[in-house]
Amino acid sequence: SQFKDSPSILVQEINKVDTIAGYRFDKSYTSKEDFDECENADSNTCHEYAHCENVIGTYICKCFEGFFGDGMECQGPPQITSKSPANITQYVETNVTLVCTVIADPKPTTSWKRANSDGKFMEIKRAHGKFDGNITIHNARLEDSGTYLCNASNTLGYDYYTTEIIIKPVIVNISVEIKLSNKTFKEELENKSSTAYKELEQDVYIE
User: PANTHER family in the record, alphabetically (predicted)?
Assistant: First the structure.
């Protein structure tokens, strides 16, 4: 810029502006220091899928790996950046959330499918999706166990991954309760005047 080395000209041309052409000026406009445009997204024109690199007096935009363009415009096929674990174990009646965060330009289409008994992936009916590609299976059942596939695609390509879900039944330990019940029943039978003994005596002859 013609102003960056001439603070007096800058004062004449611009009133009450303390940053220009990648520099920050002090209040008297007699000195300057580099202004980092990359600190704030509003201070640069880099694309959302580009890195902003600050240099003296300006900045450089570089598209993410796998994307192409001048940094202010970047395009690329889908890349899944966040995934669920390869194996998920949950119990029945719990909620299971599957994660599939995707970056891409043009905007991708993201879908979830589940493998049937023949290994063919089919649409999922018992899941609620979000705009970001994540889905949740509410009140999971045993039959929800299986292999799930997230697929993201646009006109430039696609990306996908799979995860295995295992839904287990809830097992309640009632052995203590059974032992107490058996003990109580035995004590009642040992007492010939108890109700339990008299009821049994009506059906079975006891010497």
Answer: CTX-RELATED TYPE I TRANSMEMBRANE PROTEIN (PTHR12231), DPR-INTERACTING PROTEIN ETA, ISOFORM B-RELATED (PTHR12231:SF253)
77 with 159: CB under 8 angstroms?
yes
Q: Is the peptide bond before 106 cis (omega within 30 degrees of 0)?
A: yes
Q: What is the per-residue pLDDT across 71-104, written as a single tens digit (0 to 9) for each?
A: 999 999 999 999 999 999 999 999 999 999 999 9
Taking the whole predicted model, whether its pTM rises above 0.70 is answered as no
- Domain-wise residue ranges, the chain: 7-74, 77-168
Tell me the pLDDT band of 193, cut-offs 50, 70 and 90: confident
Alpha carbons 50 and 156: distance in angstroms, whole number:
18
Tell me the CATH architecture of domain 7-74. Answer: Ribbon (2.10)
How far, in Å, CA of 100 to CA of 133, rounded?
Answer: 5
* Superfamily name and number for 77-168: Immunoglobulins (2.60.40.10)
